Amino acid sequence: MFDRQKKTPSLVIVSMSQSPSTSQSPLADRPPLPAMTCHLLTSLDASYTSFSKDLQAVIDRVRQLETENSLLSRVVEQHEDVMNKEVTRVKSLYEGEPTSARKLHDDLGKEKAKLQSENGKMKTDLKDLRSKYMRVLSVLVSCLSCCLMINDPKVTHLNTYTCITQRSLSIDLHR
Questions:
Q1: In the predicted model, what is the mean pLDDT of residues 131-147?
Q2: For residue 159, what are the contacts with CB-CB under 8 A and spacing of at least 6?
Q3: I need a surface site. Which of 17, 64, 87, 175 has the fewest CB within 10 A?
Q4: Bridge partners, residue 9, by sequence
């Protein structure tokens, strides 16, 4: 039988030959047990003890596994939290990428327009400077032509220099 409070097997010995009027112990009135019964009871006691130890080992193992399970559950929850945070972060980066790319594209377009405007302005300035340079050069050539008509030896070596300079400048201007 099982005792309900201890949850361990217990042996209940009931005496059949006990009389209500005797004051001796119930085992004293009993005839001695045969050797086979004694051996059987000893074997049963050993079996119950072994069963009790095995049951206690199983209960301890279940408690240990429950403790490990709760620890592992916490670890899994922590990993899930970290994963959810990472997924959310990557998702926001992914969703924000087109916005940042669009902004960068707009900024580059503005920069390009600004540089093209400056380039057009510089080309206009270059044309103006070339035309001024050509006017100054033509005046200089006119002046040198007048000087060459004088036929002065000092002016002759200037004539050679002027021709060379004029040719190199005209080549540079056409580039």
A1: 82
A2: 144, 147, 148
A3: 175
A4: 2
